[in-house]
Amino acid sequence: MKVLVVNCGSSSIKYQLVNMNDESVLAKGLVERIGIEGSVLTHQPAGKDKVVINAAISNHSIGIKLVIDALTDPKHGVISSMKEISAVGHRVVHGGEKFADSVLITPAVMKALEECIEMAPLHNPPNIMGINACSEIMPGVPQVAVFDTAFHQTMPKEAFLYAIPYEAYEKYGVRRYGFHGTSHKFVSQQVAELMGEKLSDLRIITCHLGNGASIAAIKNGKCIDTSMGFTPLEGLVMGTRSGGLDPAIVPFIMKKENLSADQVDNYLNKKSGVLGVSGVSSDFRDVEEAANAGNERAALALDLFAYRVRKFIGSYVAAMGGVDVIVFTAGLGENSITMREKIGNGLEFLGTRIDPAKNNVRGKAQEISVDGAKVKMFVIPTNEELVIARDTKAICGNLA
């Protein structure tokens, strides 16, 4: 069984074709600048040279067709025809309270996805465009929606509700949903395997640290709390997002800077976070370089980020009544040796500390805590595409 994994942004399509017999990636690629001048498809077949295809790509349907053409091309393709694709798995950012698991896409599911647009106006519309494009290009091929929010639907009410009038939850669905669910799910499963333990016996804190960042408390295999909220703005300091802040700051800044609701939303989502504090960049690598060169605001931004991560870890230890393992994942978590040190070496009170030699690793699954640590710390590279492919196989594997 071969599964095409699709992740559509407003002007992009990321894809992988996965052979589910051995979970190998046959090809992967990226369509960029859809509807913009200079659109391009970069296609990478396994074991072959990368192929760059420049073409006019005015919409997602044309983009998906180019992807299929690349996958079936006699020279750089990896399958003989589109008929070899058994199913398509789509990343969908927001499923609201409607979906606590991945689902086979039906007209009723599409209607529900459209109803969630209001809660994820930047993400759900392109996700829906990708589904419609695949339906048009590959009629009859089953499709599955895998939600960023689904893994967090096990949170208890006291964890996901905000202390505002209850009617806002009942009427508008205002609550904490959480995101990065496929990543938190994957790395929690992987660390249990590496430890030789049952997931159902562990208390795990997963730290998905990148330009977008979130932390989850996973007790006995279920998420009981997570740092992102109604939107991905809440929680940790991020590349350009403020993270948690006093809500009264919003109207205060609006009045002082004469900003509209949309402008203040942009202020908090695009101009804040590490970029806003450092004044250097939203890329942690650039900020780290500036800090090493003596830039005090860059150093402050990194310290602020690490401090906020430690605070969340501490609060989730309390929420779970302890912790057995802490996992670092995503771009920063997998690759920044210094940031893991900043975070991990402030957690001695838990009975854990980072081993500098073990921590000298990037993008590889490995324990990084000192020998004999009461609480283990691991680096686990995330693989959200594999989660999507596995869920798609589980749902579509028995379809006639």
Explain this structure to me?
By secondary structure, the chain is an alpha/beta fold. The chain has 14 helices and 14 strands. The strands form two sheets. Strands 5-4-3-2-1-6-8-7 form an eight-stranded mixed beta sheet, sandwiched between helices. Strands 11-10-9-12-14-13 form a six-stranded mixed beta sheet, with helices on both faces. The longest helix is centred in the C-terminal third of the chain and has 25 residues. The chain is globular, with a radius of gyration of 21 Å. The two termini are 13 Å apart. The model has no long low-confidence stretch (mean pLDDT 93). It is found in: Cytoplasm. Homodimer. Its main location: cytoplasm.
